[in-house]
Design a protein that fits this description.
single chain, alpha+beta, 10-stranded mixed sheet, 9-stranded mixed sheet, 16 helices, globular
Length: 542
């Protein structure tokens, strides 16, 4: 055992994401063929970076298609989405935009306490502070009440294995008391990426292992109501870390879909046990001990069962409603919700395909407001933004509101890396003469950090958006290629909901300033040479 310990200490002393980038490129070429043949090796490493970011690809248009059944009132610009992903028709009056971390936190606590059948929480991790403990206490209160009055309540929590296991006190230890006390009603699943395996898993320090890939979906569900967000379950996301949050109240079909999706991901994840061990369900392929291709294939099959079943059910349901002329009137069914799932390590890329098609089809007379707390567009998205198309207003974090600002060690240089990426993007906009069409903004807010992501789509001549994307993806390499992501596209003709979306967008942009060439001349935007040299190597890790 001395040799592995020695090497682990050595790597701890010299490890950086840049070295990991070089290491994983080499290891991919060495061992991909061996993994394909089903062989095993202590050095087996998953493919991570070999594939180049592909050129933008259109989602095919079915010949003669006029859209899925039940979407006749849908704006023609977006009807094509219903051919490729499930679509749920809901009244716009049941959708509410939350605007602050405290609103998000209080909404969750209130709905957990009153849940009767199910509480489903999917997040990167659960923090360990007092606010997080209060959230756990709400779950305990609901479970205790259910045992006395309604034993049907089930609580399911899905977290990332690596992030949820970090440190002595972590997400697992926060939830263990509930799991031990309410074992028949409580499930905690810990997703482990199949790409962190073999020698890579042995050598990469705990602080950095989440860079390889993780569970990034943020879904918070209470009976038939659901919050879709990019926020994690941690104190800063409840106080002073700005994100986006949408509450869909009493939307049972949407809630059922995401409950089934989280359950499917949970089925291919490690299950937390009352003794703090974690094991796979019987018959499931292990994510890092089993064959990678076998795991990815079985996980994809399980997850796509949820997507395909929902897609087929919606088609049949809409056909039945059309023939019977039942249900809500067309005036009530004014909003469409499209769930978009992205899990590239498992071969699932619906969100990527729909986002590319959305940006490809965006007309020159429309406006797209796009935001990401970590501005690091994939090459495909970059080409679409910089090519001929709509007017773009892109909002990202200024260095002082970046979540890594002030961090220790290598992580403390990540805000500078984002400054470098933003400057390279801005310079390219200028070289192409696109300054009048593509604008870059930076979010500023004292004592706050910025984590919002998504977009708002304005058609020509409209002062309110008719579409928004909201959820966990950041439009970056990690979101597209490494992590498990989910968001929803909301298309609405409801004027009140459109106004809510407009107000949300304006609120975020009001706290921003537009970037110009002078922005990067400021002293706090100076980027050290080593950061400029290393950023191209590590940008695919964050």
């Amino acid at each position: 055992m001395a040799a592995p310990v020695y090497w682990r200490r050595l790597v701890h002393s010299v490890y950086t994401p840049a070295i990991a980038g070089v290491f994983t490129r080499i290891s991919d070429r060495l061992f991909r063929a061996r993994d394909r043949r089903g062989g095993s090796s202590v050095l087996l490493l998953a493919p991570l970076l070999a594939e180049a970011d592909p050129a933008p690809r259109r989602v095919s248009r079915p010949t003669g298609s006029t859209g899925a059944q039940g979407t006749d009132g849908l704006c023609p610009h977006f009807r094509w989405m219903a051919e490729h992903v499930p679509v749920f028709r809901v009244p716009g009056t049941r959708i509410h935009i939350l605007t602050s971390p405290d609103q998000f936190y209080q909404a969750m606590k209130a709905r957990i306490r009153t849940a009767k059948r199910r509480v489903v929480l999917a997040s990167l991790y659960l923090g360990t502070g007092q606010l997080e403990q209060d959230l756990v206490d709400c779950m305990e209160e609901a479970l205790q009440h259910s045992q006395e009055n309604n034993p049907e309540l089930k609580v399911s929590v899905l977290l990332d294995y690596t992030r949820g296991s970090r440190g002595q006190v972590n997400s697992r230890t926060m939830l263990l008391p509930l799991l031990q006390r309410f074992s028949s009603q409580m499930r905690v699943s810990l997703y482990h990426t199949p790409d962190l395996r073999g020698l890579l898993r042995l050598l990469v320090p705990q602080r950095f292992n989440e860079t390889i890939g993780l569970q990034h979906i943020k879904v918070y569900l209470f009976d038939d109501s659901i919050i879709i967000s990019g926020a994690n379950l941690s104190d800063s996301y409840f106080t002073n870390r700005q994100d986006r949050y949408v509450l869909l109240e009493n939307c049972s079909e949407v809630a059922d879909f995401f409950s089934d999706l989280v359950e499917a991901v949970g089925d291919v994840s490690l299950q937390l046990q009352p003794d703090n061990s974690a094991s796979m369900l019987e018959g499931m392929v292990h994510p890092y001990k089993g064959n990678r291709q076998d795991f990815a294939a079985s996980a994809r099959k399980r997850i796509m069962e949820v997507v395909n079943t929902a897609h087929m059910r919606q088609r049949l349901l809409n056909r039945s409603e059309d023939s019977e002329d039942e249900g809500m009137s067309d005036g009530e069914e004014d909003t469409w919700v499209f769930p978009l799932v992205q899990m590239k390590p498992l071969g699932i890329q619906m969100d990527e395909q729909v986002t590319q098609r959305l940006l490809t089809d965006a007309g020159t007379d429309s406006t797209v407001f796009l935001t990401s707390g970590y501005f690091n567009l994939t090459r495909a998205y970059m080409q679409l933004v910089l090519g001929a198309g709509p007017s773009y207003r892109i909002l990202t974090a200024s260095p002082e509101v970046n979540g890594f600002f002030g961090a220790k060690g290598v992580a403390g240089s990540i805000p500078a890396a984002y400054v470098h990426i933003a400057r390279e993007f801005y310079n390219q906009v200028c070289r192409l003469g696109q300054q009048e069409r593509v604008h870059l903004h930076e979010y500023h807010r004292q004592q706050w950090t910025f984590h919002a992501k998504g977009l708002w789509y304005y058609l020509q001549g409209q002062d309110r958006p008719c579409l928004t994307l909201i959820g966990s993806p950041n439009f970056g390499y990690r979101s597209v290629h490494r992590d498990l992501e989910a968001q929803i596209a909301i298309v609405t003709e409801n004027e009140e909901l459109q106004s809510q979306l407009q107000e949300e967008q304006e609120m975020l942009y009001q706290s921003s300033t537009e970037v110009s060439s002078s922005t990067f001349e400021q002293p706090d935007r100076h980027v050290k040479l080593w950061v400029k040299l290393v950023t191209p190597l590590i940008k695919n890790f964050f």
